[in-house]
Design a protein that fits this description.
The protein is built from five helices and seven strands, in the order E-E-H-E-H-E-E-E-H-E-H-H. It is an alpha/beta fold.
Length: 128
């Protein structure tokens, strides 16, 4: 990103790199003080949703790199199904990058939660 952008700002929960905390505070500052051409959000679903909600009022183009469960990589299984502007898309073949303002994050978060117990079991058994 640093070779492709004029400025890259990083935030980490523990402050080990960049600003300590979430991306929202530094992003809010940048949007308020700078002409922003595009925001790219990569990370946990709640963070990408928060970024999209922050940039929406300013009409800053925002890309979310979605990471739903992907099983076969062809879209046939439907595990990575997401709604973008009300239409079904498959992150494995149509993405994973989408206009963040068009993603139905609530539905996607609910779908990701469907496998929480299986993921927890796999981690406990050392398979994750």
């Amino acid at each position: 990103m640093e070779t492709a952008c004029d400025e890259v700002r990083i935030a980490t929960d523990d402050g080990s790199r960049g600003t300590r905390g979430t991306v929202i505070d530094p992003l809010r500052e940048v949007i308020a003080t700078t002409q922003v051409d595009r925001v790219i959000a990569v990370g946990p679903m709640p963070m990408m949703k928060a970024v999209a909600e922050l940039t929406r009022p300013s009409h800053v183009p925002t890309v979310a790199s979605l990471n739903p469960i992907m099983v076969d990589g062809t879209g046939m299984c439907g595990a990575c199904r997401v709604h973008i502007d009300g239409q079904v898309r498959f992150a494995c073949v149509d993405g994973p990058e989408f206009d963040a303002h068009s993603v139905d994050f609530d539905e996607l978060a609910a779908r990701l939660g469907m496998y929480a117990s299986e993921e927890r079991t796999a981690l406990e058994q050392g398979r994750g």
